[in-house]
Each structure stands twice: as structure tokens, then as C-alpha cells.
């Protein structure tokens, strides 16, 4: 989908801001409604796929009737959207699940809040040599994300398949309590995981990075189920959680029209929240 310059505002927020800096930053205050009665503009941080495309579609097809103007601020990693929201560069973001948000709040001293779940970016295992995780041999190499939320997600799926055992609350490799086939795990930055597929027996890739790389659910050797706990939410600050722009955006993102668009566009790899 072609995105206009208005929608694709390049993000220049540096990754890894110090916790002290984050705590000192002030969040954006609720905006006064324009005199024409419209809700005004809301800036939303997101990765290009799928949330950037989703926000663009909502803006072009539904937002005007609701009196809302959506500008999405483009990010290419998971580290920068929350600092941008904390310091007021955006009013909301759409890229993370509640566990990721809570981890950020805990580590950075943030107070971000989830308005509600919107969609599941179903993660999957990919392989060039296998057709099932059952085919993994002793000593097989497995690449997984290096952030706590998605690393836990990958390990939970492997444990559910009976391939390893993990301790409750596991977020990294230290939580593996049994690895009978002596799998060799490699922790990799999310954005580069698609590139790791040729060099590993199995690679865990989330939809946000699988889709831009041309990976599909049909190519996966295992796709995360719809009962996942990792649905992404619309997130904002405490000051803006009742802002009409935020609540209107959530209503549009979870409308029947948007749900139909999600299913038609991504064929099951992106799953809209059910009623």
C-alpha cells in the first residue's frame, strides 16, 4: 500500500533513552477540540506492517466521518515507540501487547495504559529444511527473539509442543528446565530474524517482521493459535486514556469494517479481536 508523506512521519526518537530521562519527560495533554466540532488529529506510533497499513486504511475510509484525523509516526523497531509516547511525540501507539507494555513500565518507570486489544500479529516458526517442529533433530539450531516478551512467547510454544520444559514466568533461556534434545538456541533481534532462516533449522518470527519479509502463514511450520495471550493493544498515557481522539480511534480499529479489512488483507496471519 502506498503511504502518503502525511501518514509516514519518520521517527527520529533515539532508542534506549535513559530511565531517568523518561521519568522526567512530560506526556501530551488532552487537546482542545477544534471550533468546527471535529475531534482533531491524533499521532499514533506504529511499525509499517501491519499497524501502519491498518491506521492508514482507517484514516482513509472511516476516520473522516468520525471527525478524526490520524497521522501515524513510523518506527522500525520495538524500542522507540514507547519513549516517543512518554515524551509526548505521539498520543498513542499500536504495536505491543500488554505484557510488553508492563515490562516497559517496570523497567523505564513508565505509566502507559492499554485502552484495549485490537489484533493478534500471529507469530510462527519458519524453516527451509523442515515441514514440522516434530522433525527437529537432536542438536538442532533454533533462533528466537531477544526481547523478553517474544522470547517467552517462543519458548512457551516449544514447551506446549513438548520439545522443552520451562519454569513459570520464563522470559529467557535461563528459564529452560529441560532440553532433552539439546537444542542450540540463538537470541536474535526481532527485525533480523527473517534473515536467520537459512542459517538455522527453525526460526521464530512475529508477524510485524514476517510480513515485510514476504513470509506467510502457509510457509510456516507452526503458527500461533488464536487463543494467544499476545494480542496487540492501543496504548496511551494516563492523561489521554479518556481523550475523545483515543476512544474514537479504538472504536474505529475494532469496528466490523476494520475487522473485515484485516482478514481480507492478511489472510489469517493478523487476527482481529473478537467481540
Can you offer a commentary on this structure?
- The longest helix has 16 residues, at 48-63.
- It contains eight helices and 14 strands.
- With 275 residues, the chain is α/β, with parallel strands linked by helices.
- It is globular.
- The protein has helices spanning 19-24, 48-63, 81-86, 98-108, 148-160, 207-210, 244-253, 256-266, and strands spanning 9-10, 40-46, 68-74, 92-97, 113-121, 124-126, 141-145, 165-166, 176-178, 184-188, 202-205, 222-223, 232-236, 270-272.
- α2 (48-63) links the parallel β2 (40-46) and β3 (68-74).
- A seven-stranded mixed beta sheet has the order 1-3-2-4-13-5-14. Strands 10-7-11-6-12 form a five-stranded mixed beta sheet. A two-stranded antiparallel sheet has the order 8-9.
Concise account of the structure shown:
With 275 residues, the chain is of the alpha/beta class. The chain is 28% helix and 23% strand.
Placed side by side, the strands forming the largest sheet appear as 1-3-2-4-13-5-14
Structural class: alpha/beta
Low-pLDDT stretches: 1-27
What Rg, in angstroms, do the CA atoms define?
Answer: 19 Å
| Tally of DSSP β-strands | 14
Mean pLDDT across all amino acids: 88
Residue share in helices? 25-40%
Largest sheet: 7 strands, mixed
What's the helix count?
Answer: 8
Label the overall shape. Answer: globular
Strand content: 15-25%
Order of helices and strands: EHEHEHEHEEEHEEEEHEEHHE
